[in-house]
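CHAIN AND CONFORMATION:
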Amino acid sequence: MRRVAVVLFLVFALLGATAFCQQKVVALTFDDGPNLKFSGKVMHYLERQQIRATFFVIGYKAKQFPDLVLEEFEAGHEVENHTFGHVCLVKPNSQWTGCQDLSVAETIRQLKTTNDIIQSITGYSCRYLRPPYFAMTKEREMAIQQLLGMEVVKHGADSIGSLDWVYDSPQKIVAHVKNEAVRRGMKSYIIVFHEMSATLEALPPIVDFFKNNGYLFVRLDRFEQYKKGEVK
């Protein structure tokens, strides 16, 4: 009986230690930049908080504002691909009536042009694509992976859309992100933001919420390492 009690104690202690080591992480991501009214301000805030984030930039804007892209990169943030013209790359199904259906060749042109612009500014070769509107098919994703070696970041169980493109109220954005995180069990998440004025106001209370709940803030590449169990 005594031996059983000792074994049970060791088992529960081990389980407790394992759970303690499972660090919850959150990746802040920002779409549609660079933006003169947003990018510099959000970088200043993130620097004060010692947070590194991921910026999914639009190619023609990166070409227009290369200094902002370089500043993001040199500050330690990740700069990734959000297409050249913020276009719907592929129609997922017939219900997507407002979505054009680009050819594979045109899709690759959209992405490669943006990759080349970002690389010419930063020297960095993009690893990730977030498709506008999350419009994607398995076939198109495979083509992108095979032809460009890029990973497609899709909307899923580990991502929370902030709905900052719907709400013009920072309070509503904050409430939505908090409610979604709690509803889904306070796991690790990618938060999808856009470079909008309401997002700037919503960001501090959202960051405070995750900090107060023991989260570590990471870039998307680091998030993927945690997700795969490569980092404990």
